[in-house]
Amino acid sequence: MQAIVETLFDAVYLISVITIGVLMIRGSKGNRQFKLFGWMAVVLGAGDAFHLVPRALALCTTGLENYTVPLGLGKWITSITMTIFYVLLYYVWRQRYHIKGQSGLTAAVYGLAGARILLCMMPQNQWLSADAPLSWGIWRNIPFALLGLLVIVLFYRSAKEHKDRAFRWMWLTIVLSFGFYIPVVLWADVIPMIGMLMIPKTCAYVWSVLIGYFAMKKECR
pLDDT tens digits, residue range 119-173? Predict the structure, then answer.
């Protein structure tokens, strides 16, 4: 039952975010903000596919324990693409609110993203092992969480300052995604049921993408 429900959920998610991303790229009508948002959605869906597709195959065939290598490789790729997702979201913020300069802020974003990617590349992560160390799961997520926090603050302050109703909840979608993700990183190996929090985490990302899509439909008529 888990295999059917989870596979259907993941298929709907991947098809939805990639399709919305493509529609945004094609329907942006030269608006750089929404074209960038579309690419962001495609990166999100394509990156997650590297982990979710092997997981679906594992659940529907011989089990997760027999797909350790492809699942680990997919998790590694997803970790990188999620970092790129937040860098692109930062640039969406810059485009939407016409931010100029702020070189220090941009350096902080690239510094945190670079630290996250560098930590993900370290062999100590043991991505292809069934017993990957929790400590490195925590280390690599520290700069990622800080990057997310920075983007949360930027969208919260700017949407409030500009009375931007279309993007007024963007900050909340990111808060929710991290709120559901962090317990999975910390305790999913000990309490497997906590892994179910990845479902509402995924829904939070879909909400993020839909915010951009509906804003585009309204503003690019």
Answer: 999 999 999 988 889 899 999 999 999 999 999 999 999 999 999 999 999 999 9
Contact 18, 45 (CB under 8 A): yes
Torsion of CA 52, 57, 62, 66, to 10 degrees: -50
Tokens of 9: 């959920």
51-75: pLDDT as tens digits: 999 988 888 888 878 888 999 999 9
d(CA 56, CA 139): 28
Helix (H, G, I), strand (E, B) or coil at 189: coil
Asked whether the whole model's pTM tops 0.85, one would answer yes
**Are 85 and 96 in contact, with CB atoms under 8 Å apart?**
no
- Type and span of the H or E element at 22: helix 2-27
Using an 8 Å Cβ cutoff, are 196 and 6 in contact? no
Instruction: Please give the C-alpha separations between residue 181 and each of 23, 26, 60, in angstroms, as whole numbers.
Output: 28, 31, 24
Tell me how far CA of residue 150 lies from CA of 30, 38, 43, 143, 187, in angstroms. Answer: 28, 21, 20, 10, 25
Residue pointed to by tokens 């941009």: 106
Contact between 48 and 15 under an 8 Å Cβ cutoff? The reply is: no
